[in-house]
Amino acid sequence: MLKSSILELSQRQNAAGRRYIKWVVHEIQNDPTKWNKNGISWNEQYVNNNIESAKNMPIVVQFLDYNMSEPWGHGYLSEIKDNEPVFEDSVVVGVTDNAYVDNVEVNGKTIRALIAEGYIFEQRYSAFVDWLKGEMFDGNLPETSVEIGKKKDSSNEVIIYDGGWKEKGRVPMIYDYSGSAILGIEPSDDNAVLLELNNRTHKEKKMDKTENALIVELNNKIETKTNEINSLTNKIGSLEKTISEKETEISELNSTLTNEKNKSLEENEKLNVEINSTKTALQERESEIASLTSEINELKAFKKSTEDKELVAELNNSLARYTDKEKEAAKEKIETFSAEPSREKMVTILSEINSYITKTILEQRESKNNKTELNSAADVYGDILELNNNGDKMPYEDLY
After folding, report:
1. Which UniProt keywords apply (predicted)?
2. Considering the chain, what is the average pLDDT of its residues?
3. Cα end-to-end span (Å), the chain
4. pTM for the whole thing?
5. Residue 86's pLDDT is what?
6. Which label site among 126, 187, 276, 353 has the fewest CB atoms less than 10 Å from its CB?
7. Mean per-residue pLDDT for 25-40?
8. Per mean pLDDT, which of 6-10, 372-376, 378-382 is the most reliable?
9. HEC assignment per residue over the chain
10. Residue 74, CA atoms < 13 Å, CB-side half-sphere
11. Are 178 and 42 in contact (CB under 8 A)?
12. Pairing of β 144-149 and β 176-182
């Protein structure tokens, strides 16, 4: 007879974080004279009658190690509550998606069996999936074990067997599939271990290995894990010491930084006081400068006004000795002089008038055909003296 085992662990994922899996739930004997070592004989009709309960049943594992990589059994059965088993240390690692009856070849032999398909939560149990892949790669197909119980929401308080319960050849007729466990131990027979819950009987099957051998194996694994834990504990102790030292260093650095920061704040406060004092003094100086600048500008304006008046008066005094016709030579400059008086403009005005007078004298002399040498300064100036309408002699220096 064949063991119930995992047939396929696919590389594909039918959804994110889920690993497809296919396995034999149990063999179907279809003959009450044939049974597994648990005394169970499965009938295909009854299997099909109850097959819906196999869909969505949990895939469970009792992990042997804290890394949750290697399975052991169904889990510790802590109590029976309302005729339902309570497993304290097994976890759900996946769920059954589909279940059907079919012929399947296992280890070179074709059997009639209940086959299930589903998926494992790989994102949460990646180490376990790695263990499964490793076992199957080595040709060690992990065994599975089905769990059944009383029919839910029925008047039956127990599993109903065709012909009643018996030690050998009992045929489950009315029941529910409640779970399928992936095992890491050898089952009690060639088929998967079957865990039954019945109010009349509850047996825990023995394993092929002796209890002493199992205890030795467990002790070895416990010792290995204990050594790993001790090693990790030592590392943690070393790390905690390092952390403590670093925390001390950080505390000292924080204290130093705090002192430096306080010192820096005091210095900054002093500098701010000095800066504010300097700003106040600077503002006062700027105010004084602005006041003095205003006074200077007023004085400059007054001085310019006074100087302008003096220049206008001086020009008028100088123009008084000229005739209106002579002043016509610089009429425009004379009219605009008072708007912006300057000594340069005054000199220009007088020069233009004197030039006009000189030109007039020369023209008159030429018209009289005066034969006096043109280069004779005495004759030229004589003509000038004659043209003075006031009857006074004009000083030589007033001509230019």
Report:
1. Coiled coil
2. 80
3. 149
4. 0.48
5. 76
6. 276
7. 90
8. 6-10
9. CCCCEEEEECCCCCECCEEEEEEEEEECCCCCCCCCCCCECCCHHHHHHCHHHHCCCEEEECECCCCCCCECCCCCEEEEECCEEEECCCEEEEEEEEEEEEEEEECCEEEEEEEEEEEEECCCCHHHHHHHHHHHHCCCCCEEEEEEECCCCCCCCCCEEECCCCCCCEEEEECEEEEEEECCCCCCCCCCCCEECCCCCCCCCCCCCCHHHHHHHHHHHHHHHHHHHHHHHHHHHHHHHHHHHHHHHHHHHHHHHHHHHHHHHHHHHHHHHHHHHHHHHHHHHHHHHHHHHHHHHHHHHHHHHHHHHHHHHHHHHHHCCCCHHHHHHHHHHHHHHCCCCCHHHHHHHHHHHHHHHHHHHHHHHHHCCCCCCCCCHHHHHHHHHHCCCCCCCCCHHHHC
10. 21
11. no
12. antiparallel
Could you count the other beta carbons within 10 Å of the beta carbon of residue 337?
Answer: 21
Distance of alpha carbon 349 from alpha carbon 333, whole angstroms: 7
Residue 144 CA to residue 129 CA, distance in Å, equals 15
The residue length of the chain stands at 400
Q: Tell me the pLDDT tens digit for each residue of 170-199.
A: 999 999 999 998 887 665 434 443 334 333
* Residues facing residue 186 across a β-bridge: none
Place of tokens 């029919």: 151
Per-residue tokens: 9: 């662990």
List 63's β-bridge partners, or say none.
71
In whole angstroms, what is the distance from residue 192 CA to residue 37 CA? 10
